[in-house]
Amino acid sequence: MRQREQWTSKIGFVLAAAGSAIGLGAIWKFPYMAGTNGGSVFVLLFIICTLAIGLPILLAEFVIGRRGQHDAVTSLKKLAPGKPWFFIGWMGLLSSFILLSFYSVVGGWILSYLARALFFRLDVADYGGLFNAIIANPGEVLIAQAVFMIMTIWIVQSGIRGGIERASRWMMPLLFIFFIVLAIRSLTLEGAMEGVRFLFVPDWSYLTGKTFLLALGQAFFSLSVGVTAMMTYASYLPKEEKLGQSAFNVSILNIFISLLAGIVIFPAVFALGQSPAEGPGLIFVVLPAIFNEIPFGGFFLILFFILLLFATLTSSISMLEIVVSTGIQKKLERRKTAAWVFGLLIFIVGIPSALSFGVLSDVKLPGGTFFDFADILTSRIGLPVGALLISIFAGFVLSTAETDDELRMKPFLNRAWKFIVRFIAPLAIIIIFIASFID
């Protein structure tokens, strides 16, 4: 039995953790949520909620993970022996398994668009029709999903240092560079400043309870809290690293990328007379049409889908790592086999989701298709319930001495964090949970 792996550096951990958080939530969901909820006010509330509530829960996962120094299930057994809190770890594993099963389907869609952009010019008249044709083609979606899962497995099988950290070290900087290049191009379009105003000049008529709840939900889910991904990553962290600083850096990077996504998309949307309230089809339907109308649009579209692929991959590897880490326990020699076995199982479970918009579109479950049902199980049940239990565990089960030993922040910051994870965060999560089903 070999010694448990560790990150080689703080920057490697931060980039990997940020990569886990910066996925479709930041680049796909944030722009359309902002676009359909007034833009600037939603953005402001999102930033406040991320730093005031999302960050403390992220820090709670870091504290539990490093304190336990094992996979989530084993860590919780170690920290609360003889009590059923380890169930949080199993729930996180199940949520990650289901989440990746349909997340990989969207990753496959991105690969399909990227392949078309690379080898053919995406200049069709009806991008909505193209998107519907892609997701309804059973052969294409399954092949694309399989390729995406193979890419994810290939990274995770190589371990923390040789796989996840190495991939994050080159994918995340490239993601930032590509985003900045795209943002500059978007801002140089005639009429782009309308999009900037939409994103940053508040329209206070949108300051409502509903907007606040949506922004709070986006803050939780975009930080990847609730599925024990951050707990698992923190378990590979050396004792000398400062958890508060790392959690803050991850939160700031997530906000930065979300804002960059808005700067890439909304100036272009307004410059070319499109609607910012286009919804989930914004990046698959509206953006290709926009890029098709600007000089060198084909190049920038390829750049965007490469960027989106990187962001999706960095999140998917964290989900698979949760499953693999639990499966191998401390027996690192089993990592490669476990990565391929669990990856194959996740692909198989994801097949109904992949076919939900084609041959299985008439099969209905609670909430809609297989894809919709998997989304509800994770996004609306698994993540908030997981985040709630993690917050309660860190706030009430771990002693103040244990949390202070991990946090090592100034006493007043330790006390403020403890108060938030004990009272404020659970209340916020419960409100979001109830509101999501009422809505």
From TrEMBL:
CDD domains: SLC6sbd_Tyt1-Like (cd10336)
Keywords: Membrane, Transmembrane, Transmembrane helix, Transport
Entry superkingdom: Bacteria
Record InterPro entries: Na/ntran_symport, SNS_sf, YocR/YhdH-like
Lipid bilayer topology: Multi-pass membrane protein
Localization in the cell: Membrane
Main location: membrane
Transmembrane segments: 12-30, 42-64, 85-111, 141-160, 172-192, 212-236, 248-274, 294-317, 338-361, 381-398, 419-438
PROSITE patterns in the record: NA_NEUROTRAN_SYMP_3
NCBIfam families: Na_transp (NF037979)
PANTHER family hit by this protein: TRANSPORTER (PTHR42948)
UniProt-recorded name of the protein: Sodium-dependent transporter
Organism expressing this protein natively: Sporosarcina koreensis
